[in-house]
Design goal:
alpha/beta, 7 helices, two-stranded antiparallel sheet, 5-stranded parallel β-sheet, single chain, Rossmann fold, 7 strands
């Protein structure tokens, strides 16, 4: 890896409330924690396009209309949680893949990264089960479309209760530690893609489809 910065477009739902302590409006959880943004994203020329409350079709609408810089190399799509109570799991997954296809069409050099939905609710609920179904569908669809799927593990404990050291008491929004965990998994996935792309360029013997798999599993699943 050459260590140079790269451009990232980040689209997500909010994982914290949309206001700072002094009342200023923020677009998503990445804005809430300046240290997280600085440590993981700022040096990579990241464009944060997340808007709190967005559903997948809102993100799709904006993806089709927003101005995209020509230097864009990685698009991270992280949405769908706001749809979990009103759409079927497969509908949510299909909408998210449609967003990826828009960026694939509009940004020919960009790598499309789909981040799986995070669990919510303190205990195992039907909503949590549906989130798992969305992620399974996303994983399969990403394989079909040569997208990269990121699904960080260990958000829940062995008894299936949510890890309260990562979430606020609404068991939906992430505290700073949870934000660091999610951000680290996303950046690690980008580094993995970049390393593999560099290796593929040097050897000219791999394709994106084969680089999508690592040890027969969709990557990257990072346990921290």
């Amino acid at each position: 890896m050459d260590g140079k910065s790269f451009s990232i477009e980040y689209l997500c739902k909010e994982f914290f409330d949309n206001h700072t302590n002094d009342g200023r409006f923020n677009y998503c959880w990445l804005c809430r924690y300046e240290k997280v943004w600085k440590n993981f994203f700022a040096k990579h020329q990241t464009l944060n396009c997340g808007i709190g409350g967005d559903r997948s079709l809102n993100v799709l609408w904006r993806a089709e209309r927003m101005h995209l810089p020509p230097t864009l190399r990685y698009v991270v799509i992280h949405c769908g949680t706001n749809d979990i109570d009103c759409l079927e799991p497969d509908e949510i997954a299909v909408n998210i893949i449609k967003i990826g296809k828009v960026f694939e069409r509009r940004c020919l050099k960009a790598n499309i990264i789909i981040a799986g939905l995070l669990p919510r609710d303190k205990f195992l609920t039907n909503r949590r089960i549906n989130i798992s179904k969305v992620n399974i569908n996303l994983q399969n669809y990403c394989h079909l479309h040569n997208f990269y799927f990121v699904c960080e593990q260990n958000w829940t404990l062995n008894n299936n209760n949510i890890d309260e050291s990562l979430f606020y008491q609404d068991y939906l929004h992430l505290i700073e530690r949870g934000n660091e965990k999610l951000s680290r998994s996303i950046i690690n996935s980008i580094y993995s893609i970049k390393r593999k792309s560099h290796l593929n360029h040097k050897t000219n013997s791999y394709t994106q489809a084969t680089s999508f798999k690592l040890d027969n599993k969709h990557f990257p699943f990072f346990n921290t």
